[in-house]
Structure formats: structure tokens, C-alpha cells
């Protein structure tokens, strides 16, 4: 038993006891016989605590990064992958043999892989609800799929419209609506983005990055109008497996 090499992995975020990642990787390590591998939550109140996590966790080989640190963690890293640099957000960190921290983005990959099977020729443009780190991976994936998009935020800016601008014409022009905000996440399951849901149709896709609950109010309201719906579980699984490959390079 003494010959087993310890490898520790973990999730960095705030208020993450609900998280998918710890259960997913713990099951993976048990089921696939990765002896010595463990996965834990590093729940930190602010990003300035991040260096202490790295310093005080021996055998740490890789980390996942979640809300609200996908952008804030970047200054603490030694290097970024080309795509993480372009996206401007990191959700996966690999710790090299020399102890250097390299940031990657596997969110965009997971989102792209899970959205593609839903796409039909009439799905031409997308609305991205939210402008945080998660939305950046979504936007990058849409760029790769050649799908134009517009950001929606609570306040209008040079790069986003606000929710009051969304009307029937918007739904005519945008056939994919993506919730990249945390609105509706457990335990706040009664919350939903403020949209005119009556304008969803069978020609629309409603995609929610949230996976807990499995069907948010956003998805329920869109489905009631006939829209095709998808939650974030497949995206999470795809990005997690991509992260696992990166950690084991």
C-alpha cells in the first residue's frame, strides 16, 4: 500500500457544498480504480485565499474553478492555454511537475459538445444571459460554431443589452436562449431570468448551464411553450473528462 502515489484534486469556489464535481470524481476514482486519487472542495470566502490552498495542499495535481473565481483566479497563475487566454476565463488548472500553475478552459468544450446535437438549420442566433466567467466559455463555443450572439445583462452596456429590451421581435431573431447566470440554482429554485416566456416556441432552444435542479424554472417555462430544453449536466460531464485528461498529461 505504501507504493500508492497520492494525487489530490479539488474544486475552488464559494459556497460549493452542492457541487457536482466532488461526487463525480470520487465515484470515478472508486469505479475506475484510481487508487491514491482524492477530490475535495476548497471553499474560500475570497480569491486572495487561493495561494494558501495551493501552498497547504501537498500532492495537489489539479483543480477545477467555479463561480465566482473563473476570471479572478487568472492573476494567480503562471501560464494560460491559448484558448483560456482568448476566452478570458479559467475553470481548470494543472499543476506541473515544477509546481507551476497553468490555466485552461474546458467549459467551452463541454458546452459546445452538449449543444451541437440540438442544433438545426433554423437555429441561427443566440442570446447569452449573463456576462460572467461562464458566459465567456459559451461565447467562445458559439464563435467556433459560427453562431452570432448577443449578451444580456441587468444593465445595458457597450457589449450587452438589458432584459427590458427583449420582446417578441427578439425571439423572432434569436432562436437559442442560454442562461449563463446562477439565477435558479438550488436552493433558490423559484427564481428565474426575467424574460417574456410567452414568446418561446417549438423552434427555440432553451439551454441552462445550471444542473441543480435538473429542470429550472427557466427550462420549465420555456418547455411549456414547446421549446427544446437542455440543462448543464452533460456539459459538466464533458468538461470534467476533458479536465481529467489535462491533469494527466
From TrEMBL:
UniProt pathway: Metabolic intermediate biosynthesis; chorismate biosynthesis; chorismate from D-erythrose 4-phosphate and phosphoenolpyruvate: step 4/7
Keyword Repeat (UniProt): no
Domain Shikimate dehydrogenase substrate binding N-terminal, residue spans: 11-93
Biological process, per Gene Ontology: aromatic amino acid family biosynthetic process; chorismate biosynthetic process; shikimate metabolic process
Domain of life (superkingdom): Bacteria
Pfam (any one): Shikimate_dh_N
GO molecular function: NADP binding; shikimate 3-dehydrogenase (NADP+) activity
Keywords (A to Z) from UniProt: Amino-acid biosynthesis, Aromatic amino acid biosynthesis, Oxidoreductase
GO CC terms: cytosol
PANTHER family: BIFUNCTIONAL 3-DEHYDROQUINATE DEHYDRATASE_SHIKIMATE DEHYDROGENASE, CHLOROPLASTIC, SHIKIMATE DEHYDROGENASE
Protein name: Shikimate dehydrogenase
Amino acid at each position: 500500500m505504501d507504493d500508492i502515489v497520492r494525487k489530490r484534486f479539488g474544486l475552488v469556489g464559494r459556497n460549493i457544498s452542492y457541487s457536482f464535481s466532488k461526487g463525480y470524481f470520487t465515484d470515478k476514482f472508486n469505479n475506475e480504480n484510481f487508487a491514491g486519487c482524492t477530490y475535495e472542495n476548497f471553499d474560500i470566502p475570497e480569491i486572495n485565499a487561493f495561494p494558501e490552498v495551493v501552498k497547504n495542499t501537498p500532492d495537489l495535481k489539479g483543480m477545477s474553478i467555479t463561480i465566482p473565481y473563473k476570471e479572478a483566479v487568472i492573476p494567480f497563475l503562471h501560464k494560460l492555454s491559448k484558448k483560456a487566454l482568448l476566452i478570458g476565463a479559467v475553470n481548470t488548472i494543472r499543476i506541473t511537475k515544477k509546481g507551476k500553475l497553468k490555466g485552461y478552459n474546458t467549459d467551452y468544450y463541454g458546452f459546445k459538445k452538449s449543444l451541437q446535437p440540438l442544433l438545426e438549420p433554423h437555429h441561427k442566433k443566440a442570446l447569452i444571459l449573463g456576462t460572467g466567467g461562464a458566459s465567456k466559455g459559451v461565447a467562445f463555443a458559439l464563435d467556433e460554431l459560427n453562431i452570432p450572439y448577443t449578451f444580456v445583462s441587468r444593465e445595458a452596456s457597450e457589449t450587452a443589452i438589458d432584459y427590458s429590451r427583449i420582446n417578441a421581435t427578439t425571439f423572432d431573431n434569436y432562436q437559442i436562449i442560454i442562461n449563463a447566470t446562477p439565477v435558479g440554482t438550488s436552493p433558490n429554485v423559484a427564481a428565474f431570468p426575467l424574460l417574456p416566456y410567452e414568446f418561446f416556441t417549438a423552434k427555440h432552444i432553451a439551454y441552462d448551464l445550471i444542473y441543480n435542479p435538473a429542470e429550472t424554472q427557466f427550462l420549465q417555462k420555456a418547455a411549456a411553450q414547446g421549446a427544446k430544453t437542455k440543462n448543464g449536466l452533460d456539459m459538466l460531464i464533458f468538461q470534467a473528462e476533458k479536465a481529467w485528461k489535462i491533469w494527466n498529461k
